[in-house]
Amino acid sequence: MLKIYNLLEMITMITAIRGMKDILPPETGRWQVVEQTARELFALYGYQEIRLPLLERTELFARSIGQDTDIVAKEMYTFLDRHGESLTLRPEATAQVVRAVIENRLLKGAGVKKYYTLGPMFRYERPQKGRYRQFHQINCEALGSDAPELDAEVILMLLALLKRLGLGQVRLLINSLGCPACQKDFRTQLSSYLHSKSGWCPDCQRRRDTNPLRVLDCKSQHCRELLAAAPVMRDFLCPDCHTHYSRVKALLPSQSFEEHPRLVRGLDYYTRTTFEVVAPGLGAQDAIAGGGRYNGLIKDLGGPDLPGLGFAIGQERLMEILPSEVGANHPSLVFLAALSPEAREQAFVLLQEMRQAGFAADMDFDDRSLKAQMSLAHRRGATFVVIMGEQELASGEVVLRDMISSRQQTIPQQQLLTVLAQQLRL
Ligand code: HAM
């Protein structure tokens, strides 16, 4: 009978969409700690929060991320709305932040403008460990300066956040992708190298002509092998880009980064400094953060000719390697166990007073036995139980039971909050 019921339930149950997962307690508590830590740190560096819609016009991403990228070509959730307009669930936030700062005229005036945004992104990728169709990013963007100090500051802030979260064992990979001028020579050389070899995947055969840099980002093992002897951007940097890159490296502690001359990012808008943070123990999807400069993007999207850079942390991947003690502390719970309808009435008033005084407190509203209420308190992890019965009501007292030591004391109800504050060291 039970089996038939389970089967029926499975048939009628509506499940979440593949690649999109529910984030549940106690995991949500850990997410909150990560987000709060990020907010506090970003404030120290002068970043302000910006909250953006999940939907944008498709053109925004097609124009900024690049038509030839996997994201735009294969992974966007795009649909026509009821008026036939093509909309896309954001696959990333940088293009959006740039759209928003232009539209809301936030780039006016001197100085670097710094914004961060947190939230879900959507990419129709093949789900696997660390790769989801809805995932979350912690995204920072600094707009308005090309100074290498800003590159270093952005990278150091990212490392500082990871360190605050107890993630010291990560590797920072950096590279420079140069500017459009030096990329031109590189493109020509790369293209002739790509044509000198055969066996590229169908996508790369096309990209050899349309956008050779994208071949460097191909995930096919065979293409990667063919790329082993391909030219690297570092050898083509113009003097300005070379100086910029050298300065960024000089500003970072030498042991904090590894140069990775073949690092290209999966988005077309990058120029100059690019970087990724990879973490051990994550398997194939080991990049927990990625970012870089995008000096032409603001202009390309119709804004002033201002440079910018930023990064995004993939929150799901970060959570995978977050030390277990982060977010493990919960406020001590005080559970009220009332043993009669009258006691329950008083306990209900006391419950509100306790919360107002800053205690995490709860009680059972159903008419359960003391034994049942005690086991409920135990399951909820209560540190103290306050027992209120007929006798206690008559004498204006309560029984306070320490759930860890199992010691009980009877105290005047009026002293309860003071005693609890002492015991819990509030
Ligand atoms: P991205 O490298 O595409 O860069 O994504 C940044 C991070 O998001 C990745 O390192 C990874 O941790 C996470 N991520 C990406 N796709 C998935 C997925 N399908 N499932 C789980 N996590 C994923 C960007 O998005 C740029 N907008 C970063 C940036 C900001 N550049 C400049 N400013």
How would you explain this protein's 3D organization?
This protein has 426 residues and is an alpha+beta fold. Helix 2 packs antiparallel against helix 6 and helix 6 packs parallel to helix 10. A hairpin with a 5-residue loop joins strand 15 and strand 16. It has an eight-stranded mixed sheet with strand order 1-5-6-11-10-9-7-8. A five-stranded mixed sheet has the order 13-12-14-15-16. Bound molecules: histidyl-adenosine monophosphate. The site of histidyl-adenosine monophosphate has 26 residues, from strand 6, strand 10, strand 11 and helix 12.
What's a quick, concise take on this entry?
Helices cover 39% and strands 21% of the residues. It has helices at 2-12, 27-44, 58-65, 70-75, 94-103, 148-164, 180-196, 202-210, 221-226, 239-251, 297-300, 315-321, 341-356, 370-379, 390-395, 416-424, and strands spanning 48-49, 55-57, 77-80, 86-89, 113-122, 134-143, 171-176, 258-259, 271-278, 287-293, 308-314, 333-338, 360-363, 384-388, 397-402, 408-412. Residues 92-94, 123, 125, 130-132, 135, 137, 139, 141, 266-267, 287-292, 310-312, 314, 316-317 line the site of histidyl-adenosine monophosphate.
